[in-house]
Amino acid sequence: MMRLLIGQTGAPTSVVNASLRGFLEAAADHDVLALRGGPDGLVEGRLTPVTAADVPVVATRHGGSWLGAGRRAVTEEDLDTALDVLAVNGVEGLALIGGNGTMALLHALANRAAATGRELSVVGIPKTVDNDLVGVDHCPGYGSAARYLTKVVPDLARDHAAMSGIEPVRIVETLGRSVGWLALAATWHRDDPAYAPHLVLIPELTFDRAAFLTAVRDALRAHGRAFVVVSEGAASELTDDPFEAVNHTRIILGGVSRALAGLVSTELGVAARGEVLGMVQRSSGALASDVDRAEAAEAGRHAAKLLADRATGLMVGLHRSAGQTGYDPVPLAEVAGRTRPVPPQWRSTNPADLGDFHDWLSPLLGQN
């Protein structure tokens, strides 16, 4: 029997509690502590005993985080304090659920433990709606946020079509500070081909003011309206949002859609609305993908098994082959602090060019 610690850093997703419960189910033969409150809790020693019975199944169908969440720009002193907390509490294996900042924290803890002669196994459980983790085909959390967008954005387009006489241009803003995976998901229109977005802007493509205005003008001429999707991190020069803040420790409030709407109104002389979808994308348990929830739980189970085998320095990876998802581990050194952008073949401002991306996305969305 080992003493294990499970925690989460960064923001929640609608399926993060499924990863927690999956971990606890697979770790039933071990003594498990819960880290409460993210990295602050790790430094401050907020650890409590936990079993799968403490996390009800219903919690896996809701947003938020049973463990609590948070971010912190971790210092060298914090690393030493955290290792002291782990040692005092007899923790032999640590699993953290999170994104690339979390994997960087785990990697730093593992390196610091090795350098100071402490025995500690660390394993990462991937989690981010941004889908920007290196070493995975897709990340738990993304499929549900994507599904939310595929359900609500076509209805926003229908609403826009009805109101286009007084609001010719509508610009809808998704999450995604440095990558466009969610904005691309919002271009999904296979169930509603008449209501496809006319234009999508992602951070991987440099914002071209003149080309943007031309595309909006062309959509107005062709359709009588222009419906645009934009990632919060596209055209970041138009806002004051702190996209380069260390470990995402400053809040991005959203606003590029409104800045673009103002640009359209000024330059083209037509009414335009900027719509910020906000945190509901990552928190909507009601529209979560059943596939995503199952994969999140399985990622948690694999992490517990890796720790039980005293593996260390790894993140659970998700890979697809022949329609099946596998969970081969990936070295944290290949993941920590790195960002996976949208690949070149899917970098387009025209949703009509994204059929291959929609093929890739479709299995992640689950049942209607």
Structure overview:
The strands form 3 sheets. Strands 3-2-1-4-5-10-13 form a 7-stranded mixed β-sheet, sandwiched between helices. By secondary structure, it is α/β, with parallel strands linked by helices. The longest helix is centred in the middle third of the chain and has 22 residues, at 142-163. The protein has 11 helices and 13 strands. The chain is elongated and about 70 Å long. The chain folds into 2 domains: 3-140 and 286-334, Rossmann fold; 143-284 and 343-365, Phosphofructokinase domain (Rossmann fold).
Terminal CA distance reads 42 Å
Report the oligomer.
Answer: single chain
Gyration radius (Cα, Å) is 21 Å
How many H/I helical runs?
11
Give the number of domains. 2
Given the helix and strand composition, which structural class is it? alpha/beta
Topology order in helix (H) and strand (E) letters: EHEHEHEHEHEHEHEHEHHEEEEH
Q: Do you know the CATH architecture of the largest domain?
A: 3-Layer(aba) Sandwich
Q: Trace the largest sheet across and list its strands.
A: 3-2-1-4-5-10-13
Strand tally is: 13
Unreliable residue runs: none
Give me the CATH fold name of the largest domain. Answer: Rossmann fold
Helix percent reads 25-40%
What is the 3D shape? elongated
How much of the residues is beta strand, in percent? 15-25%
